[in-house]
Specification:
It is built from three helices and three strands; from the N terminus they run βββααα. By secondary structure, it is of the alpha+beta class.
Length: 134
């Protein structure tokens, strides 16, 4: 739908909490699985200058692949001990390494339910399970 997509305006700035955010145009963003870049709505906080770029709910912030794609690749790797055929291994190795770091940082050494369950649990906590930042 391009610029006509009905984006939901943020209620407040995620950085400073200011209730007023201004429309700040659109940003062309590339996502895996799409031939052309998608136009994402941007907002700007007049108080702190933070730029808020809205994105589809199906994607984590700062990731080009969907949550489903990431989880599916990791589950395939965990269960079959190899990456899915025809996939970019380097990107997926980063996901797995970062998931293990998140588990160590947030779920302690006693986590015994497996990495797939850890992925789901971290998502339920509102975390990005494959993020580099702890």
């Amino acid at each position: 739908m391009g610029r006509d997509f009905p984006w939901t305006r943020p209620k407040k700035c995620p950085c400073c909490g200011n209730w007023k955010v201004w429309g700040h145009g659109f940003a062309s963003t590339i996502f895996q699985g799409f031939d052309d870049p998608l136009l994402l709505k941007r907002y700007r906080c007049p108080s702190c200058g933070c730029i808020i770029k809205l994105r589809p709910l199906s994607h984590f912030s700062r990731f080009q692949s969907s949550k489903h794609t990431i989880r599916s690749a990791l589950v395939y790797r965990i269960t079959k001990d190899r990456w899915p055929p025809g996939s970019a291994g380097s990107r997926q190795r980063h996901w797995l390494c970062n998931l293990k770091r998140q588990v160590k940082a947030h779920l302690t050494e006693e986590w015994r339910d497996g990495l797939a369950a850890a992925f789901d649990y971290l998502m339920s906590l509102g975390r990005i399970p494959v993020s580099r930042s702890i």
